[in-house]
Amino acid sequence: MIFINRISSRVLKSIAMLCFIFLQQLVMGQPGTKLPIGKPEVEFNAFDAKGKKNGLWVQQWKSTGNLLYRGQFIAGVPEGNWERYYADGNLMAITKHLQDTTVVDVAFFHPDGKTKMSEGRYLKKKKNGPWKIWDESGILRSDENYADSLLEGICKYYYDSGKLIKTETYKKGIKSGPFAEYYKNVKKRMEGSYEVGSYNGPFKAWFENGLLEREGDYLKGAEHGAWYFYNETGLPKFSIHYAKGKIIRKVYINGTFKEFWPDDIPLSEYTYDDGKKNGPFTEWYDVGSYAEEPVTDKEHIAMGIVKRQVLKGTQVKLQGDYVDDKLEGEVIYYTEKGKVEKVEMWKEGILVIKK
What we know:
By secondary structure, the protein is mainly β. Among the domains are: 29-124, Histone H3 K4-specific methyltransferase SET7/9 N-terminal domain (Single Sheet), CATH 2.20.110; 254-355, no CATH class. Helices cover 9% and strands 57% of the residues. Residues 1-8 and 11-28 have low confidence and may be disordered.
């Protein structure tokens, strides 16, 4: 029994020693916990004969007693590397004074005190030149350029995978010049140019599969001239002709297209193949309205959606079929009350029977 107690005592002492060593190493790993040795206002926090700060200066957090900052003064002017700490003693920032406070390089760290958060240069207390930002995982998220604390030149932004999201060009903090955006699969999403913060000039956008989705021109932020749209297989879908953002004309090529009255009531629906009407079509009167109804499915409720807009009271005006851009078969016309007004029979675009 005595032998067992002796072993237990030795084990406990070993565990205590290991804990002490671990805690000591933990503290030693936090530079902000190392207070200067010596007498304040003599070995540190001292003034020179002219009453200016000189030598090592430190300040402590009131809440923890750890260092808030540590750095050197020469005749009242900050010199060399300065360190700033979080309240727990982890490194917050390193400031390198290249020319008193006129030119200063800085690096900021995440709360772990090891992972860099951002770095760049201050010139006369304003951001100047390249500035980079990393997330808590150490992934570069942005690479920007500044002049007088305003974005200037080419700036790059990244996904959390490290792949490029977009590049933008700035002049005095305003988007001006070429830009490009990318999908996560690194294929280009869109490209164009800005002028004084607005789209201007040629513009292109792509599907994620790499095929062209649309292309056209902007004029001072508004679509201008001919714009061409494509489907995900590469076929032309439709084109729109604009005049300073105003639609002048639409030309449908491939696909099913639905147009609406100004109050968002359906106007028509046609299908096109190679620019020709093909298949069933429908046109509606400008009647009906939208009403709110409660959402009942669990998926939408879980998303916080409790009501939805439902269109009610619409009325078909006519419907029929096209084959190679020619009416084929029955075309039925309705009154606004929903009664059949007349029926026409068409054969290869020629009216055969009307009743």
